[in-house]
Amino acid sequence: MAKPKVAFYWCASCGGCEEAVVDLAEDILAVVGAVDIVFWPVALDFKKSDVEAHEDGSVAVSFINGAVRTSEQEEMVKLLRRKSGLVVAFGSCAHLGGIPGLANFHDRKSIFERVYKEAPSNANPGGVLPQTQTTVDGKELTLPEFHDTVRTLDQVIDVDYYLPGCAPPPDLILGAVTAILEGKLPEKGAVLAPDKSLCDTCPLNDSKPEKVSLAEFKRPHQILADPEKCYLAQGLICHGPATRSGCGERCINANMPCRGCFGPTKGVRDQGAKILSFLASIAGLEGEEKMTDEEVGRLIGQIDDPAGLFYFYSLPASLLKRKNLRQGA
Ligand code: SF4
Ligand code: SF4
């Protein structure tokens, strides 16, 4: 019997999700043995024409990582969507926009100005900017268009499942591949990870006070954090209350607060707003004493880059999606 065809593709990402597949270690042999990999640009020399040659819907599943930033990425994910029975958004960037999505605080014009003209390491006296078409020695060269806005995968194509994480951990990847091969998948649109908050599984949860009181926010480099004590109780902003579990508490175990790469649990529409409202509900309560408005303002002022922090991984997927630079907002 023919093995199911599987494709991997990367869009705007760091490559960590590709590493995560290799991190399956010897388990990758079972995966490779059970499927026919028909596209994996980072590892195998397939071309776009190879993908085009497959019948529509004949690829069992495409795992697509990275956010969508360029016209080439958009074209490829639309092609893979057409060819695939299932599409899995693989990792935080495809799922939520991820770190590349923080570029939505800027636009193409300001990014190009900074990267190609203003950056101190540049040597570009002519101020040349990338062009989608240019002629060199009579030959026409093309580049993909760099879109103004970073989008999540499901803002471009229909997505069947989401594998969260920066990067998704090997046990979740293996669980997803096994579920697909055995046809034991949950309802369409599901995130293939537990629907509990990270605090529920965190080893520091026992030290999380019933009601955390915060009179001061600190950043991880400003204190020597106690690895045995809930970070929020130490004044460090931790996204655990607003983040889905399943990562193995990787950051917590490395003595760092969570930054939210698994995204929100099912009932939460906007992860950044959720962490903000959680912090607002606990900040400044000493016993039953309430802070004055000025004290609250001073406390919030201690948070460096609040929008970037609260939407660390999820700006394109949020209600905000991007900063509206044209209206000066
Ligand atoms: S807030 Fe962070 S450190 Fe505290 S219990 Fe939740 S995940 Fe753990
Ligand atoms: S602790 Fe948070 S940021 Fe770190 S891997 Fe887990 S979900 Fe992602």
TrEMBL record:
A molecular function (GO) term: oxidoreductase activity
Alphabetized InterPro entries for the sequence: Hydrogenase_assoc-protein, NADH_UbQ_OxRdtase-like_20kDa, NiFe_Hase_small_N_sf
Domain NADH:ubiquinone oxidoreductase-like 20kDa subunit, chain residue ranges per copy: 14-179
Recorded superkingdom: Bacteria
Keyword terms: Oxidoreductase
Pfam families per record: Oxidored_q6 (PF01058)
Claim: Signal is one of the keywords in the record: no
Protein name: Oxidoreductase
Organism from which the protein derives: Candidatus Coatesbacteria bacterium RBG_13_66_14
Organism lineage: Bacteria, Candidatus Coatesiibacteriota
